[in-house]
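TOKENISE THE FOLD
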Amino acid sequence: MNNNEMHHNKELPATSPYICCAYGVGFTFILSTLGYGLAIIPGFNRIGPMACAILLAILYRHFFGYPDRIRSGIHFSSKQLLRLSIILYGLKLNIGVIIDQGLGLLLQDALVIAFAVLVMVWLGKWLKADPSITFLLGVGTGVCGAAAIAVVSSIIKSEEEDTAISVGIIALVGTIFSITYTIIRPILPLSPIEYGLWSGLSLHEIAHVALAGAPAGQEGLAMALVAKLGRVLLLVPFTLILMYLMKRKHKNQSLNTRVDFPWFLVGFILMSLLGSYVLGTSIILSPEVTEGISNATTFLMTSAMVGLGLNISLRELRTKALLPLLVIFITSIALSLMTFGWL
């Protein structure tokens, strides 16, 4: 603990644990809101509120120390609010639209996930990058960015710092690639639908896919989102396979380590089914309400990322993030070239 943190955590009058927890959650809400404000500024608007909020959390920790007095509320945001946001995230997945596109698209999505994870892990070992961060980045690159990283980190029990670093890197790299796509789109020999398919297969977050796909018009953007949502759908079987492999690994190593099932993923599936076959085919929710739920989901996930970001030390960030950043750049370029060759 540095001098800033020691000063920050001086003895204070006894306070109810519930009040401390509420203060902690409120603190993450404040930094999350500031992250939204920072994301309005030109330049920062390219990386989005989530990455901006993580940046603010890292800077707060560096200059003012960790607010240990309200640790319970910050921990609540980084754990419980993150799981709630993933459950609500399921509303964005329209299973029916993906099924209508056929198994061919899902097969391509599965190949993308396998390629991203395997190449990231192999390159990470070769370059001696941090294995936890490189694996999380492989999952985020292959599946659906921060949401996938959050789900998998709870299964492999990665450190919160590694999770936050991975989310920050995926936001940065995905933004760079999505902007690059929009710049080179006019010179590519691709139709709007082909360009949309390429974007949906190769980019990291749904937001990145939307940013890159928008210049291709409604048809191109729709194709991009469908291709991306297929990868989101495959998060479920990927998670189950990962749990099986971890249990097998622990059994072979004669360890008693327990692999917890991410029950919030069940909520994610239920919300996907609800959004696809109930809310999406009725007038229960107006477009305004649906948009409000989507915005609330993003805000909750951003607040959770603040809690994770407060665990990051700038000194450790320099030593742990540089090699994984190089690995994800190489992998993302290879993924873009591979998927482009499919068109």
In short: Residues 11-341 form one domain. Confidence is low (pLDDT under 50) at residues 9-14. The radius of gyration is 20 Å.
